[in-house]
Amino acid sequence: MADPLIVGSFAGIVGVGVGYFIDRLIKGGAYKTRDEIVQQAQRDAESLRKDQELKIKEDMLKRREELEAKLEESRNQLRSRERELDKQQAHLEEQQDSFRKKEKMLQGTQQKLADRTKAMEAKETELNRLLKDEQEVLYKISELTREQATEQLLKRLDRELSDQTGAMILKHEAEIKLDCERKAREIIGMAVQRYASAHTSETTVSTVDIPSDEVKGRIIGREGRNIRAFEKATGVDVIVDDTPGVVIVSAFDNVRREIGKMSLAKLIQDGRIHPSRIEEIVAETTKEMDDHIRKLGMQACEEASVRGLHPKIVDLMGRLHFRVSYSQNVRQHSIEVAHLTGMMAEQLGLDGTIARRCGFLHDIGKAADHEMEGGHPAVGAELLKRYGEGSEVVHAAAGHHDDIRPEHIYTVLVAAADAISAARPGARRETLEKYVRRLEELEGLACGFPGVDHAFAVQAGREIRVIVDSSRVNDRQAARMSRDIASAIEQSLTYPGEIKVTVLRETRNVEYAK
Questions:
Q1: Dist CA 133 CA 16 (whole Å)
Q2: How would you classify the pairing of strands 463-468 and 500-504?
Q3: Is there a contact between 397 and 377 (Cβ–Cβ < 8 Å)?
Q4: Rounded to 10 degrees, what is the CA torsion of 457, 459, 464, 469?
Q5: d(CA 461, CA 455)
Q6: Which of 47, 88, 403, 473 could form a disulfide with 468 if both were Cys (CB 3.0 to 4.6 A apart)?
Q7: For 169-204, how does the pLDDT look when each residue is reduced to its tens digit (9 = 90+)?
Q8: How far apart are CA 376 and CA 397, in angstroms?
Q9: Using CA atoms, how far apart are residues 363 and 289, in angstroms rounded to an integer?
Q10: Which of these three, 395, 423, 451, is where a domain ends?
């Protein structure tokens, strides 16, 4: 039986079609009879009905196919899910079987451990019993009580431990000594590497260029009055000889020599050379030199990072610019010692500010040792004490040459930095002949010992390497020879710093396979 909805739809469609064709025929003005029109409408309606039935069937078939496809897809998904569940169930069953096996193995292991524990307890009990029996036997054999045996054993252990402790103490002392020496070398080497400065060399004479030799007569003046007035005002010696184009100013006081040089250059440039003008120029130059010295002292304080010094000390540090020691500028040397002392103190965890102050002021006495009695360490300590410096600074100035027993660690650091600055290559220049002669003396002294084959002075004379004959000198004799050579150098040679003596002994055995 047909669906009422489908039949109603079909009847509506037929009615619409019939009306459409009737309207078309009427509007078209077709000259047909009623029967023909009705027949034609029936045929068209039948054709439309069939077309609609086909469309409806096709739609129903499509919907059916879509529903069947969705149903098949759902069935496939269900089958796939069932297979996955089956696999998971099988895996779970396998895990359960594995857990059961492991549980059985664990139970067996626990049982074995329990059995072993019981056996060990039984063996321990038996061992304690045997030890007790053996102790009783030993007590009977030695005729000692337990307390006496324990006391003897402890005494023996105490002796053995004392010997071992002494050996360990000696071993550790040697290791600590080597470690301290290594660290000291590292600290000094690091300080030297981090700071290095050039040094200028000054002499006791200065030259002043003159435009012509006629000026020499004006400098001397009538009957020498100009040159005498100049030497009296400046305290220097003026040498006017046959050397063309120059006049020599000589003095042991470098400040006076510099004032004389500057004053003479101003007089030559001014052209008015007479006693009154000389006194005027010298007074003016002296004032300029005082200002220049103060400026040099302040620059040195800034460069060495030292603050809060008395103005008189600042002036004295400026005067050190004109003082040399073995061709080494003392002001620059003081700045270098300040930096080296500060770096070593900071490496040791000390106060770098105090250390730099001690190193900077250690040679302050050289600026006034010609005005006060005593060596420059004592003069420097007296000046520093007078101008309110601390005990560490005063003691460093007084004891940096080992004149007194060091009481502060900063004094030791200043002495080390002073030796480094004075002894490093380039700090104190010497002539080539003197340098070569010193190396030859060093090598000749070492070669004078019996058993020495060769001796070589290396590192600018800071080390002597001695090669000995191994057949004539053994290891003990080589160690003694190094000390003897060092003692001989100390007694017979003059040198800055220290000289390392290295004795090399080598034994070689050579054979040839033929």
A1: 130
A2: parallel
A3: yes
A4: -80
A5: 12
A6: 473
A7: 777 777 887 777 777 767 766 665 555 554 444 455
A8: 9
A9: 21
A10: 423
One domain, residues 336 and 459:
no
**414, amino acid identity:** V
DSSP H or E stretch at residue 212: none
Which of 29-38, 42-51, 373-382, 428-437 is least confident? 428-437
Find the CATH number of the domain harbouring 330.
Answer: 3.30.1370.10
Are 377 and 450 part of one and the same domain?
A: no
Cα–Cα distance for residue pair 161/169, rounded to 1 Å: 12
Calpha distance 450→473 (Å, rounded): 9
Q: Which of 357, 231, 245, 234 is nearest to 289 (CA)?
A: 234
Q: Are both 261 and 315 inside the same structural domain? A: yes
Mean pLDDT, residues 48-54: 89
Q: State the number of CA atoms in the 13 A half-sphere of 135 facing the CB.
A: 12
**d(Cα 478, Cα 452) in Å, to the nearest integer?**
10
Given a contact cutoff of 8 angstroms between Cβ atoms, the answer to whether 256 and 205 are in contact is no
Which residues, at least 6 apart from 416, have a Cβ–Cβ distance to it below 8 Å? 188, 340, 344
Q: Does some domain include residue 209?
A: yes
The residue type at 82:
E
For 17, 44, 484, the CA distances from 28, given in Å and listed in that order, are 16, 17, 150
Q: What is the 3-state secondary structure (H, E, C) of 410-424?
A: HHHHHHHHHHHHHHC
Calpha distance 168→175 (Å, rounded)? 10
CATH number at residue 486: 3.30.300.20
Helix (H, G, I), strand (E, B) or coil at 149: helix
Sign of dihedral through CA atoms 321, 326, 328, 334? negative
pTM: 0.46
Helix ranges (DSSP H) in 195-309: 214-220, 225-234, 254-270, 275-304
Rounded CA-CA distance 128/378 in Å is 80
Q: Which residues span the domain enclosing 28?
A: 4-133
Q: Which residue has the tokens 């090669």?
A: 467
Whether the per-residue pLDDT at 78 is higher than 90: the answer is: yes
The domain boundary residue, chosen from 401, 423, 445: 423
What are the two backbone dihedrals, phi and then psi, of residue 253, each rounded to the nearest 5 degrees?
-85, 110
